[in-house]
């Protein structure tokens, strides 16, 4: 019987999470015709046109075994926006829990005689604490979908184990007073300055991410968007069932690289411009869906680009309004209002400034020879998939940790901004602005480092091999599906 085991996907409405999860769903139903999938879609309030537009389009792509269903809207409460975008999203997800319960009850209990078997839930980071217990109500397993790398997963599980099972005290104020941390999931000691706020900030860890980590431990399996050749050290530690450093943990399935092949509709104007550029001559600057630049930093980037002499494609986005916690970057209405006077005229033959691009399509273009990136996990995988070296410019979340690994562990990237903080420098506001001289030097290194380019080319081959028949990711995906089918 086709599609006789159904999975319910419930993913927080971040564009990077949703696109990854949709690609994972397509891989699963393509791999085994006994699987069907229903996505329960959550829309944001009118604060992110890009993600809402994408979510609105998904039901139109439903197929026989892949369905997309909008959940009833939830009206946000004013206090949800008091802390951060992440806290807002946690409240939003939590308040959808009754809607998820209602759907599952109707689908698999009330209509049980005509419905497939409920094979379980697939949820991402911010949904684990809300959904694992709900899944237990229906006697169904939960599979946690971790949209970052295995090293960050390992650190998160390690911190939860230390706090709950070993030290039994707050690790952010006690365990992490050291200048560096040794962990089984990372090859070299990690400076604590590169660890994300989710692990280092007491309130963020104790009120949110500790609960997410506990949800991972309760899950039947953890699906990770990575592959063995990229994170062999981390995957070895996570796959060691005899290891006690993480406590008892579910199986970990590395099924990546899952690449965002949707939303690759693009600007014909950008493609035509790239077509005119020499091979590997263009440096591409893009800081992700949540990254933005303003004021003095925009001028320093522009100056650095001019001084580097490189051809460039620069994605420049306007930051949220000051004092607005839950807002998202948007396009500038007029670049001349924010760029240095005459910059667009001086660089019209060698550069292009845009507001949004289909990132994978750009990275795939023969003209692109380097990628200045915030080091979000999706962007890293897309760049390696296309064989484009990265210049690291981490901004938030686990991006400094990702950049540290890329530069210091793997040799796959060059630094644009310093990854490891220098404690001798005074912490002044101006120190947070990356200067033109540093940007110029970083771009020149990025575009000329032959050793990094060679390693990236080798990793590109490993990316594609992982997803082929017999590849590590394809085998891991098959193991995951067998686990779902067996129930």
From TrEMBL:
Gene3D superfamilies, alphabetized: Glycogen Phosphorylase B
Pathway connected to this protein: Secondary metabolite biosynthesis; terpenoid biosynthesis
Lineage: superkingdom: Eukaryota
UniProt keyword list: Glycosyltransferase, Isoprene biosynthesis, Transferase
Molecular function terms, GO-annotated: UDP-glucosyltransferase activity
PROSITE patterns according to UniProt: UDPGT (PS00375)
One GO-annotated biological process of the protein: terpenoid biosynthetic process
EC number, as in UniProt: 2.4.1.-
SUPFAM superfamilies tied to this protein: UDP-Glycosyltransferase/glycogen phosphorylase
Family: Belongs to the UDP-glycosyltransferase family.
Protein's UniProt name: Glycosyltransferase
